[in-house]
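Researcher: Last one for today. Full complex below.
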Amino acid sequence: MNRAAMNPEQNPVQTKGAISIRNVTKIYDPEGVNVMAVDDCTLEIQPGEVCMVVGPSGCGKTTLLNAIAGFHSVTMGEIYLDGELLCGPSKPKADQGADRVVVFQNGALFPWKTLTDNVAYGPYVQGKLGKAESRQKARHMLAEAGLGDFLEKFPGEVSSGMARRAEIVRALINDPKVLLLDEPYRAMDELTKSIMHEALLEMYDRTRVTLFFITHDLEEAIFLGDRVVVMTTRPCKTKKILNVTIPRPRDYRVLSSDAFRQLVDETNEAVHEEALKAFEAGEREMA
Amino acid sequence: MAETETVAADHQRNPTGFQVFVVRLRRNLRTTTPYFAVLGIVLWLVVWWLLCEVLKAPRFEKMPGPVMVLKELLSPEPFLGISIFTEEFYQHVYVSCRRIFFAFCIATGLGVPLGLLMGWSKRFREYTFPILETLRPIPILAWVPLAILMFRGFEGPVIFLATLASLYVTTLNTLLGVDSIDESYFRAAGCLGSKPHHVFLHVVIPGALPFIFTGLQISVGVAWFSLVAAEMVSGDYGLGYLIIDAYMNNVTIPMVIGMVTLGFVGWGTSVIVRVVGSRMMQWRTRALALENR
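Model: Here's the assembly. Have a good evening.
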């Protein structure tokens, strides 16, 4: 269980899960007036990278995530996953699929299913496993994530931290190429957050799945990420990319190191400028 | 370690909906709520009794008081022919309940799938919603002549009318239930690799259940309204018929007996729907129980 004691050679080297966002532009047209949410955004994400995306509220980060997941179409540009076209001019909207699983801002475990049934849902509906086998595997994976005492509980009966952890398990059971996280810890207090972060890092060290992680929280971004992508306010494009060189595995002690503080300062400057612009524009946030 | 945790969790027993119900009932009996409920009913009976039988207040002097009604209801040889000792009384209750049963089952069997489809398929809703909305405001009584023309005998028209009323309620509530489902559940289902029939089965149906059961509770009540209206126009038995028959014969006591019985039987049917609902939605019952609701 102790991450620091884990042999780094055990970590699988990831070869899948490269996302390539090329010149993506998204224009919304809700009331006959064009609103540009994303403007000519280009971003290359390596297989197994933890890519943290920060930017002011409503800048269009989620729009980008939704385009990768296949919830929205793109107006221009292409997005590739491992060299395969997800969406582009010939196919504005990507197909939804279990190779890119989303963890939602407000949590989207099905409240009418127990944690086990929630996790077993993916492999079962994809026809990968039978009902009993998928439940068996779900129980095993939940227990591994420290949720062994809550297998037959409904999401409404467990804490939000537990629910969010179960949601990540529900995503991972599908062995996705990319995990798309949309501010998953937004509504949590700092203490719960730090526990969630360590659990996420532990999971990441085990699986090395590519993470596309949207957040407002700079410390969260630097603590978790390999790279921090700072986005401009709407329309959204990449403003600055910071490499986080702090070695893995990381734990909470990193938070007080000089290297960490310096990165926070550096990011803060870039983000603050954009936040100010966003505030002055005073536009309503878009989902 | 993972294995032991799995085994331990298998032995863990969660309370089922019924057990939660019992626990809550017991806890309830320890609070003042049920006693106040009984007190409320007694108070109401006393006011009725005072107005009609003791004070004989103006406008109330011709109404039967609770003592008169109870005496007749509990008499082995009722003066006006109807009491809990007569077979006729049970015949009326039975006939009405049977009609409600059929009407409710037909309305639910048609209304829930119809509402689910309307909520799920935009195209289907575009076709059917205007029909529903234009039929809905037509009062059930307006359908009576057509119902009698369409169906033979007593049962057909009565069941048709009761069905019609509850069908609208059930369909509309089911439709709203599907609308109420958060978009993120559909998205989650989509990115977990669902095909459309999985979404229907695992998201649309369970997600709409809370609204469906709210609708069913209203619909069973509405079925009773329209059943009584229908029995008053056409019928040979039934609580509605009992009431209108007493009115025609100018006797008030059997009328009140009919009304009171209807109230209690109707309450019973709502309770059944509620209990079935909370059994089918354990996830909700349990979450609400945690909030002490």
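Chain A has a mean pLDDT of 83. Chain A touches chain B through 38 residues (CB under 8 Å).
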